[in-house]
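<backbone_tokenisation>
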Amino acid sequence: MREEDGTPPGIGSEVDMAPQSGAAHSGAVPSRAGGPRLSAVDELVSKLRALISSEGLRVGDSLPTERELCDRFQASRNTVREAMGILKAYGVVTVRPKVGATIVDDRMERALELFSFNTLEVSRKTFSDIQGFRGLLEVTGIDLILARLARADIAEMREINDGLRRAGSSDEIAEIDFGFHTRLIAVMGNKAILDIYKIMKPVILRIMSKGKDSPVQATATHADHLGILDALGARDRLAYQYRMRSHLQAGLGNFDP
């Protein structure tokens, strides 16, 4: 996800740009207002974020060279490189040989990678937590969905759902299932909600694929979706909520107590 027009939100921060006089950049430096001491690297990361904000740097713009940053902030080359490494890990910059650091906005991709790494195993509690969260969006969000729902949305979700008839593996079933629900979330027209939902994709896919290794499961999922679509088409709020809640809880038995 990139924001081409303007500074990516949240990259800059309101921090003092003045270097800490007399601070040793190889160790900890005093923080403001008597707070905990920051390492030289952490302090430089804050200053670099402030630099991006104060100079109005945008996606695609370049940061000063390594040598320029060393001189500007009275920091060692190692400190600058470590700070750049942190910004790169955050998805704020990309660093290439002979080119230097360029502003990017890959924070969503980094969040996806982190979430995927931290959800290698899915427990019954994880199922309950994730499906409960999805219920807040997909069950209680029915009023917003109905307010924005168009015939084209239902037609597209039916087309996605029909892919389950051709699915040949649990992973493929899960991908189509996720695509169906993602398209439903998109109806809300709220990009932040959609982004959060996509961040959760790795664990949602694991939940969806659990126990869905047979054509019977694909057929059952397909039928659940048809019931949900029929309720949406009829604009039947209660029928939709009942069918969606039942659908989200259908896989609970696949997880050990």
Observations:
- The radius of gyration is 24 Å.
- Residues 215-233 form the longest helix (19 residues).
- The longest strand covers residues 93-96.
- The CA atoms of residues 91 and 165 lie 39 Å apart.
